[in-house]
Design brief:
By secondary structure, the protein is an alpha/beta fold. Strand 3 (21-25), helix 1 (36-42) and strand 4 (47-51) form a beta-alpha-beta unit. It is built from 9 helices and 8 strands. It has a single domain (5-256), classed as Rossmann fold (3-Layer(aba) Sandwich), CATH 3.40.50. Helix 2 (65-78) crosses helix 3 (92-103) and helix 4 (134-142) crosses helix 5.
Length: 267
């Protein structure tokens, strides 16, 4: 299937399927295509929405985690999304999803994080890509995955283009520094909704220890690992990622039909 982009109210986004809403948030170097397999699997039963986050185009002073969270708030309001929905986020998108949930606890019914920042992130292997050095960029993009071949030429070309634009680089650095400043360790206990953590066991950007920290700090977290998988499980291990996501969504749907309980799920 092709991800068809829509334009409305000044936003660019994908909106596929009908049913309960899944709001997907990509990362700093992410793209709509990162979520392709999730859209293909879940759009027959869910309404899957992916906003294009303006990480390279927003005003420089707004190029921060709070600025992107506000962008998502505006997007949700303008599209008049249902009162509650599920938020999924990878890398920076997970960080934004966490902050959105903290600011809008009544809107988020459940949260799915994969390779999320918010506690610790070794961005691009500890260094930003060097301008004009294609081989270096290819190596750093490959660092995202357990299998470097997942870093397609198209993906490497996109990152290479970003690193050769002063304006885009400034925004990238501003957002990355903002993510480091906005550590959420002291706030995660306030997130009361069920949270699914799907992590690559071979993630070198947000290592497995980070996933365990999230599981410890989030009151209602379920943690699942995927072996032979790096920082983007929905791309590198789509079948495994979709399996755990389906289990989580179906369990949450069945539990919502039962009388409310105070059960905490942890792993």
């Amino acid at each position: 299937m092709e991800l068809r982009r829509q334009h409305q109210h000044g936003f660019e986004y994908v909106d596929e399927g009908q049913g309960p809403v899944l709001l997907l948030l990509h990362g700093l170097f992410g793209a709509l295509s990162n979520w392709y397999d999730v859209v293909a699997e879940f759009s027959p039963r869910y309404r899957v929405i992916i906003p294009v986050l303006p990480v390279y185009d927003m005003p420089l002073l707004q190029a921060t985690v709070p600025g992107l969270q506000q962008y998502v708030e505006n997007f949700v309001e303008k599209l008049a999304l249902p009162p509650t929905f599920t938020v999924l986020g990878n890398s920076l998108g997970g960080h934004i999803g966490l902050v959105y949930t903290l600011h809008n606890p009544s809107r988020v019914s459940q949260l799915v994080l994969t390779g999320s920042s918010g506690l610790f992130e070794d961005g691009m292997g500890g260094s930003f890509p060097k301008r004009g050095d294609y081989n270096f960029v290819r190596e750093r993009v490959g660092y995202t995955f357990y299998d470097p071949s997942v870093a397609t030429k198209e993906l490497v070309d996109e990152v290479f283009a970003v690193t050769n634009s002063n304006a885009k680089c400034l925004r990238m650095i501003s957002i990355a520094r903002s993510a480091q400043r906005h550590n959420l360790a002291r706030e995660l206990h306030r997130i009361a909704v069920p949270v699914l953590l799907v992590w690559g066991l071979n993630d070198t950007i947000t290592p497995p220890l980070v996933a365990h920290d999230f599981a410890r700090l989030l009151p209602h977290a379920t943690l699942r690992f995927l072996d032979h998988c790096g920082h983007a499980p929905m791309m590198e291990r789509p079948q495994g990622f979709n399996y755990w996501l389906k289990q989580f969504l179906e369990r949450s749907a069945s539990e919502s039909l039962r009388p409310a309980t105070a059960t905490a799920i942890s792993a």
